[in-house]
Write a structure and sequence with these properties.
Blueprint (H helix, E strand, L loop, with lengths): L8 E6 L6 H5 L10 E2 L10 E2 L22 H9 L1 H5 L4 H11 L3 E5 L14 H19 L6 E6 L5 H13 L5 E4 L15 H10 L2 E5 L17 H22 L2 H4 L4 E5 L6 H19 L7 H8 E5 L7 H7 L4 E3 L13 H6 L5 H15 L3
Parallel strand pairs: 1-4, 4-5, 5-6, 6-7, 7-8, 8-9, 9-10
Antiparallel strand pairs: 2-3
Bound molecules: zinc ion (ZN).
Amino acid sequence: MAKNGFKIIDSDMHVMEPPDLWEKYIDKKYRDRAPRGVTSKNVRDLRMAHPDGSEWARTPTAPSQTDTARGRNFEEKQVTFGNDAARGWTSEVQLEAMDHEGLDIAVLYPTRGLRAMVDERLDPPFAAAVARAYNDWMYDFCQRDPKRLIGAGMISPYSMEDAVSEARRCGEQLGFRAIFMRANPLVDHQWQSEYYEPLWDALEALNMSIGFHESTNTGRNQIGERLNPNFMLRRVFAQPLEQMLALGCFCGGGVLARHPKLRAAFLEANCSWLPWLLWRLDEAWELDGDVFAPQLNNKPSDYFRRQCVVSIEPDEVVANSVVEQFGSGNLVFSTDYPHVDSRYPEAVNYFLRLPLNEEDKRKILWDNCAAYYAM
Ligand SMILES: [Zn+2]
């Protein structure tokens, strides 16, 4: 494949899951509770519903998504993705989208599935079944071309025993290279808590990565709640701020110090804030690290450099300051196909126009991502 001489991995391409995924794939014991995808004139309708019709993981204070037109960008995306939707967002459609952009490999993250683990009616065994169903579907989806389509697995945050066994199944049986979680914790534990330790141990042993992926529109305890109903502002802040908090917990809270082989990505939330945040974390560690971070032998930014990546947006023109101040060794590329702020089908072209040299582009488009996903 390659484009303009660059081989390209999309660190975070999205699938659009079929509305009946969970009805078809979930353990039959849970079929009468399985979420259903909602469809409408919105070709990228990402809602899910309970069998009784009530919305799955609805944020009470947010305006409900409807199928009505919602402005210029919405209408443009209706056109850009209308054909892909009409064809059912199949794995052939996915591969053709990759061909349009010149992507060699894509690591696949969900769309509806980003809120699958958020619903209040989930109990731990049901949540684990919802995750297993998604992963089984994703495995089948990737079989169209398993060298180019790589899954990132869903795990339940409600039981670390379930999470560990599913991560193991994802790595050892399904061929996935990562698992994903939302950056805002869905359980009452911060990311540096003892609670998650078995999962971090397992990911190190499996040589798998954790990709943090927030979602703008929904989530318990999410910072974007404070901005409802202004979705424009919510989109600006919800994902970056949640990712910054998670990154801080990982680098400054001791997770990466305790797990030197664990690799973490903070996806779809820009990268231009990175130099400031790492400087701020390092300063905090100098001032108060002896009290609050005695297990950190190095600066938080050192752990970041050793074990983390952050994704750059194709049109993030201010990101050259990240490369100038921090280097390009921890950035990965994403098209964000087919989400509402994606530059598809021009995402790679946008990126290639950024004021970065060839060496930096090569690292961002391929080398860093290949290392992160251990490909
Ligand atoms: Zn994404």
